[in-house]
Amino acid sequence: MELFADRAEAGELLAERLLDAHDPVILALPRGGVEVAVPIARRLDAVVEVLVTRKIGYPPAPELGVGAIAEGGEPVFDMALLHRLGLTPESVAEVVRRERHELARRVRVYRGDRPLPPLEGREVIVVDDGLATGNTARAAVRAVRRAGPAKVTLAVPVGARGTVRSLQKEADEVVVLKTPLDFRAVGQWYAYFDQLTDDDVLRLLGRR
Predict the structure, then answer these.
(1) What is the per-residue pLDDT across 134-147, written as a single tens digit (0 to 9) for each?
(2) Is the domain of 139 the same as that of 58?
(3) What pLDDT score was predicted for residue 1?
(4) Could you tell me which residues come within 8 angstroms of residue 163 by beta carbon, excluding any fewer than 6 positions away?
(5) Number of structural domains the chain divides into
(6) pLDDT at 191 over 90
(7) Helix (H), strand (E) at residue 15
(8) Which partner from 21, 54, 109, 129 sits 20 to 30 angstroms from 198, CA to CA?
């Protein structure tokens, strides 16, 4: 299966599948989702903003995500994984507290004192650079729903098939360009997949 050259190219291709959107608000999940979302917003002549999310990590191995949280929402947990690890949501409460603190810090970095655009009654497109476990996307979609939008679309260039199916129960529509059988990680489907910084995000949004 052909690779995306980079996130910007993936966003341009994804935009072609979103042309029917009506005056949408585009919310990008940082950091990689921002680089995908900017060309979409340009093509759709739409507002783009960051929706900050944070992974909730397994305390002995924080890189293993047991859930996620998005601004304006509540923690979302992979309950099957928690059970296998012998954990409960209560047992990772301290991790959640720390991630809420870091989430608030990143909101200040990316938006300052500006709130998210009004979402009630609007069509909202949530954008990320790919779906592996789907925890952050699930947390984001649920947080957006709390604001009362007319429609929530999740748009990603590539995703694991099982994750895409599960998120079709969360969003009104999931738009994905590739669902490869041999999916192992999001980055494997990009020829260039560098790690972005906060400064990169601000530059992409025209705030640097």
Answers:
(1) 999 999 999 999 99
(2) no
(3) 73
(4) 131, 132, 133, 134
(5) 2
(6) yes
(7) helix 7-15
(8) 21
pTM above 0.90, yes or no: yes
Cis peptide preceding 31, ω within 30 of 0: yes
**Are 151 and 59 contained in the same domain?**
no
Residue 59 DSSP class: T
Same domain, residue pair 146 and 191:
yes
The 10 Å Cβ neighbour count of residue 139 is 27
Same structural domain for residues 59 and 40? Answer: no
CA dist., res. 175 & res. 171, Å (int) = 10
Structure tokens belonging to residue 7: 């996130």
Residue 66 in tokens: 């047991």
Checking if the pLDDT of 208 tops 80, the result is no
CA distance 145 to 71: 12
Question: Does 117 fall in a domain?
Answer: no
Q: Distance between CA 107 and CA 82 in Å, rounded?
A: 28
pLDDT digits (tens, 9 = 90+) for 17-54: 999 999 999 999 999 999 999 999 999 999 999 999 99
